[in-house]
Design goal:
By secondary structure, this protein is α/β, with parallel strands linked by helices. 33% of the residues lie in helices and 17% in strands. It has an 8-stranded mixed β-sheet with strand order 3-4-2-1-5-6-7-8, sandwiched between helices. The longest helix is centred in the middle third of the chain and has 24 residues, at 104-127.
Length: 243
């Protein structure tokens, strides 16, 4: 005779909710807050917003130095590690001098690419972020982040705040050397094609990126912003726009 056991509701297996995985993102760019102008301010505000929404944010950046090309008071031009605003901060030294003209405008981002390479590689392999967000400038640093991201299966995004190669030759920092421009253009093209997604700040820059070979399907426009409590349309005449 086969015995049959009755199973009460209390003995049913309990369903346990799995803990939600906290999304991890690594942000990699030469400029960051507390820089008050240009790319640094925007990147800093993006990172802080992501941290405030609950993401696990790691930032690899240089010591604050722009504008002025001088390390901000209270910081030292060396490696430093800590936490700021709930974000894991990894700051690295860069080669600076005054005035920053000519080839020196190329030396600074190249030095950042070199000093940050072992840090960003280690952080990506150790933290295994879901997303790696690189910021241009500087594009020179991107290949190391792309290589490490591929090893951990991370999604890669490039946020283009400035078309670095175009700008360098347009303002005459690198003269008019055709061979150097061709090399820079080739490096840019190869690097752009290795990102899963590219984001830029204007339609004109998006068109230029398409000309460089970035497909529209991988391209988005997210415009920079202003604090509307401080910058807003004024009524009547002003010293700047009298009519």
């Amino acid at each position: 005779m086969v015995a049959i056991e009755s199973v009460s509701e209390a003995s049913e297996p309990e369903v346990v909710a799995m803990p939600r995985v906290r999304r991890r993102i690594l942000i990699y760019g030469m400029n960051f807050s507390p820089e008050i102008a240009g790319v640094g301010r925007y990147t800093g505000e993006i990172a802080q917003h992501l941290a405030d929404t609950g993401l696990d944010v790691t930032v690899v950046t240089a010591q604050p130095h722009y504008p002025g090309w001088r390390v901000k008071q209270g910081y030292r031009n060396r490696y430093s590690f800590g936490f700021e605003g709930g974000m894991r901060m990894r700051r690295v030294p860069v080669l600076l001098r005054q005035p920053m003209h000519g080839i020196w405008r190329l030396v600074a981002p190249l030095s950042f690419a070199l000093t940050s390479a072992p840090v960003v590689f280690w952080e990506i392999l150790r933290r295994r972020p879901h997303t790696v967000l690189c910021v241009e400038p500087t594009l020179f640093a991107a290949p190391v982040a792309q290589a490490a991201a591929r090893l951990v299966g991370a999604f890669t995004v490039l946020h283009v705040q400035d078309l670095e190669v175009d700008a360098a030759f347009a303002v005459g920092h690198l003269g008019s050397r055709k061979s150097l421009k061709a090399l820079g253009t080739l490096f840019e093209k190869l690097t752009l094609h290795r990102f899963h997604r590219v984001v830029t700040i204007s339609d004109r820059m998006a068109d230029r990126l398409v000309e460089k070979g970035v497909s529209r399907t991988r391209l988005s426009v997210v415009r920079n912003w202003v604090d509307l409590a401080h910058i807003f349309p004024m009524r009547g005449k002003t010293p700047i726009a009298p009519s």
